[in-house]
Amino acid sequence: MKIVEINSPSTQLGAVLRLLRSRKKRVSVEVLPEICYVASNVVLDDGHLNKYRAVCGFKESHGVPFIYPQILTFSLMMEFLGSQYCPWSAIGMVHLANRIEQHKPLYVGDDLRVELRMGDLISHEKGQMFNLEFQILRDNELVWQAIQSTLCRGISQPVGENYKSILAPEFVLSRQAVFSAPRNIGRRYGKVSGDVNPIHLSALTAKAFGFKRAIAHGMWSKARALSALLPEEQIDQATAVVEFKRPIYLPGVASLWSRRSARSAQFELRDSKGEEPHLRGKLSYS
Description:
By secondary structure, the chain is α+β, with helices and mostly antiparallel strands. The chain has helices spanning 12-21, 46-56, 70-81, 185-193, 203-207, 218-229; strands at 2-5, 35-43, 94-102, 111-124, 127-138, 141-153, 161-162, 174-181, 238-244, 252-261, 264-271, 277-285.
């Protein structure tokens, strides 16, 4: 397996410009390359964490929210998508699902090793779906991992097993909260996360890519829901799986619906009327 060490990630603007300039064809591939992107000595920074909490609704008592480390993986994903090893252009890709699993809590000042590997190819009716697998190690021990599932549209002969949703609605959910998604939340979250995709920044830039207005980041929507579902203290272990259904247009209002048990929840983030889901998920923690 080829190892690519990332010591100086591209700037936010530089990474986006490189993706916008990419003109790769939408072609079928049999497998993704055997490659691992690595960022060593990534220190969990208190100042950045506080900015993330403020944007996503977490409190200081939450400690390091177990969704936060996904932010630390973003630069590796951008390096891959803009490289010769990614077989497709990233323009128009759609984030369909995300799974995060924390094995041990993380703390401010932790010195971490962040890794990205290629996952499975999955056949989807609208194109080729693929998984990217992330791992975070502390002192050579796996403490956190995630899988991001992304759709590359327009590929006529996708390979892999057929995509199947694992989060069918099973129970009646009750309304728990209402969230505002202000006009500038895409810019605020983009500044913290590094994801400055034009579809999130303004109505003008979003329209250039076919959207009527800017849309909220899917991972902001997931974080905002988890901030209301998690207990107000740091947790040791947790798993959260979500599937993204419809974008939240900005400005907008979303409602949180859930069915909770002692240390788990099934939930949906829906429109303000509670009719159409923006995302559907499952959470468990200890």
